[in-house]
Amino acid sequence: KNSLRREIKFKIFIKNQGNLYSWLRNSPLKKSYSQRQVNSLYYDTPNLEFAASNLSGESSRIKIRARWYNSHPNSIHNSFCAPNTLFTLELKRKFNNLSDKIIIAQKFIKKNETFNNRRQNLNLLFKEKIKKYPILINYLLRDIVFIRYDRNYYEHFEYPDIRLTIDKNITCSLSNISHKAEMISQNFDIVELKYPIDHELKAKIMMQNFPARA
Q: Rounded to whole angstroms, how far apart are CA atoms 152 and 191?
């Protein structure tokens, strides 16, 4: 229970961005980090069971991904192959709009690698580390899709565990393609509110005049 937090997403269309930033200026939120590029490689079954459960909104669902970050904009494929990159394998569990996150493993790769070599090395690490998780060992899993976006971070002045992120320029690419990515957020950004469940009332008060619905 102590590790659970509530996560609520909002789609903000470009035409409504002015309302969002006007609300931000009058909110108790401050920018907490510089913008950075968030990259993920998602794993799923051949039938995309995890994706289907998330799209259908099942009450209990999971996501598995390798995640890494860039301070400066880069294509997802170049960042994936870059040297001196820290990869974190994560298991994300969701229960309605409550969630927690388990770090399965981390690996820092110093050298530059080809796309296929980097993908193979991460898959080997993934297969080795998930053996200790009974929830995963019965699935036939493989890497499916890359997702990248530019993220801005905000936190509450008084309660820094209440956080809000804004994701822009969301792109995706199939994991077996090393050169092509498609923009999937041409006319919207994704805003996500995150907070521990014991901050429920404080977060609701803060979001009373938020200019969008989840």
A: 10
